[in-house]
Sequence to fold (461 residues):
Amino acid sequence: MATVADVQDEPGQPPALTSLSLAEAAQQAKSKEQVITPFDVSGGFDEQGKPKAIDYNKLVDTFGSQRIDKRLLERFEQVTGHKPHRMLRRGLVFSHRDLNSILDKYEKGIPFFLYTGRGPSSDSMHVGHTIPFEFTKYLQDVFDVPLVIMLTDDEKFFHTPKLSLKDVYKFSMQNAMDIIAVGFDMKKTFIFADTSFVDGGFASAFNNNVREMGKRTTINQIRGTFGFNDSNNIAEFNFPAMQSATAFATSFPFIFGTDPKKVAKIPCLIPCAIDQDPYFRQCRDNAPKMGFLKPAIIHSVFLPSLRGNESKMSASDADSSIFLSDTDNQIKKKIGKAFSGGQDTAELHREIGGRTAVDVPFQYLTFFLEDDDELERIKVAYEKGELQSGEMKMACTKEVQAYVSGFRERRKAVTEEVREEFMRPRQLTFSGMPSEREQQDARERRIRALEEELERLRGDP
Fold:
């Protein structure tokens, strides 16, 4: 049985990227560009072979997305009537594709849905995993819309030789309970794991969209987007079509109804980390060919590793991450060892101040501390040398411990029965939901399909 310690969180692809450790790669070629893919995240190396921080401005230019600027934030607040989430205010959710279009539709009363996901690579999530889910919950609360959460356990099985199907299914069930503990509304949220949902009786429409997307996606497109080569298995080439299918409301007739013309017009907004963008560029390229709207996307940055902002937290590296299962004492010890932007001595620190741009504890405060004024006070005091590194780490420890403690309390209430209800294909409750007649028709069609399937099984030898 694979364990957290021996399973990579984000296996590199293509294999050439994982044949050497980052340190060995730096020795062979001191200067190396940053790599941001669904399978590998690194800020790269400078000419001296030193790791570099991830350059998000460069990613916006490379990926061709748009910056979330002050004007868009003002419009968001005007349209929704809600103060932007701290991640929006602080540029931690920093980039988008067609967010303006979603705001236009919401302003006109046109319904849409949210879609996000998680690739379960371990049985315990770390705090970096919860950040996009916390932001997604905020969006669900603000817009009062349905949410579909996809657990891509099959993707982890395809990409990671050490993982078995039994491993990834176990991880997905545990991760589902962690995700529920973020606080999602059961009446508006459907969670599914690929390995169990796609073979069930409710997935026929979903599978048809996978086929339609797969037919329109070429091998060259996948090679160009993901860097795959002849050593990648065929399941890896096919998986992007599956991740794309969730972006279409027609994949879930039990939620959105069975009128294909009506349901095909329901827009989708995908909150995700920036490394997932390649999947949805493929999806957006092919959606119009299938008669669907392009999904809108909103990108977040990564929560840095405890070792520094050159990479993100990784579930396969316990020393780089703070897990939701960590005790208060473990959190304190880990933050105590986190990379600091302070100076070598207290005297020098008082003289020239600390560097908040590289200080990991301060970076964590930008994610977890809600009070903008207090965050600014800490920033100014640290950079002036009035606040020492130890004090910065104490402030960070307090916030992270409170965050994880709140999660622990909510997690206690998430039983297997609660998880089963979240993962049961069912009608969700939201503005613009299908009429009672549509729902009844869908139920009757489903009953007939199940009866036919039962007759077929009875007739099999």
Q: What stands out?
A: The CA atoms of residues 236 and 296 lie 24 Å apart. The two ends are 35 Å apart (CA to CA). The longest helix spans residues 389-412.
